[in-house]
Write a structure and sequence with these properties.
Elements lengths: L5 E3 L2 E3 L2 H13 L1 H12 L12 H6 L1 E7 L4 E8 L4 E6 L10 H9 L2 E7 L13 H15 L4 E5 L1 H10 L7 E5 L5 H11 L5 H14 L8 H5 L6 E6 L7 H10 L3 E6 L11 H12 L1
Parallel strand pairs: 5-6, 5-7, 7-8, 8-9, 9-10
Antiparallel strand pairs: 1-2, 3-4, 4-6
InterPro entries: AB_hydrolase, AB_hydrolase_1, AB_hydrolase_fold
Keywords: Hydrolase
GO molecular function: hydrolase activity
Length: 287
């Protein structure tokens, strides 16, 4: 998403300049408008490091590793000294230290943490990315730093972990927080936010499928969830304005061994620092 896009009341506020550019391009050619939308869709915002994450950033052992399949390098964080490792995966426009409150709680229980800046995020290289690159990063990290006892993913990070498992990634337990679900819904909502014609969403789907060699629908969380046997804790807030709670409910419905926790009043990001949520995650992973 564009650098000058802003969040207001938990929903994406698209700058008028971008809306006008999209409208102008769609008047000239729907194909031009689709390319414009696709670029925005794959461009995350790099935020400044918040104060609450400075300690984890400073105390982590950091290194850059290559992800051969996507020809990218990503920044890795090794946090803590415990023998049992937990993988944390941030969401869109996040960074490897974003789940710091969860990381600190797990460190206190004797675990160590591995996290990373996904491609085009944080300190990692690139300007654009998409979920398949998150997934390839997870698979490569497992080769280097695995095995992992458990993994926790927020938003797109949760979606990526579910999909990584269908491609061979393994943990004993998995936690998703505020994860999206159906790819078509995500694309439709994005095009609607840009105030572009609905058919542009379908054009964008075809464009990505030709580029990636897989259907976009195959990356929907509920499909991956149906193939997972391990215990999975799905956490979602009833008042999440970014990713509707119906996503978490639908994912849980397709799990063979799933638990569902629905919170209230925490939204899409505040949930990451909630003490009750963090305690539930730690207890789920331990027991």
């Amino acid at each position: 998403m564009a650098k000058n896009a802003k969040k207001r009341s938990g929903t994406l506020k698209i700058p008028n300049s971008i809306l006008l550019a999209g409208k102008f391009l769609s008047f000239i050619s729907l194909k031009f408008a689709m390319r414009f939308a696709a670029r925005l869709f794959t461009t995350p915002i790099r935020h400044r490091l918040p104060k609450r994450e400075i300690q984890m950033d400073a105390q982590s052992r950091q290194q850059r590793i290559a992800i051969p399949k996507i020809s990218r390098e990503i920044n890795i964080y090794e946090y803590g000294e415990g023998d049992k490792k937990i993988l944390l995966v941030h969401g869109w426009s996040g960074r490897g230290t974003q789940l710091v409150k969860i990381a600190d709680a797990l460190l206190a229980e004797g675990y160590s943490i591995i996290s990373f800046d996904a491609p085009a995020h944080g300190k990692s290289s690139g300007k654009t990315t998409l979920m398949p690159e998150f997934i390839e990063s997870i698979l490569e990290i497992e080769k280097i730093h695995g095995p992992f006892e458990a993994a926790v993913g927020h938003s797109l990070g949760g979606m990526s972990l579910l999909n990584a498992m269908r491609k061979g990634f393994y943990v004993k337990k998995l936690v998703t927080i505020g994860s999206g679900d159906i790819i078509k819904d995500i694309m439709d909502d994005f095009i609607r936010a840009l105030r572009l014609q609905p058919e542009i969403s379908e054009m964008m789907r075809i464009f990505f499928e030709r580029r990636e060699g897989e259907t976009m629908e195959s990356y929907s969380s509920y499909i991956a969830a149906g193939k997972i046997d391990i215990p999975v804790l799905v956490i979602h807030d009833n008042d999440d304005a970014d990713v509707p709670v119906k996503c978490g409910i639908h994912i849980h419905k397709h799990l063979k061994n799933g638990s569902l926790k629905i919170t209230k009043g925490l939204g899409h990001r505040k949930i990451l620092g909630d003490k009750e949520v963090i305690n539930d995650i730690a207890e789920f992973i331990q027991h």
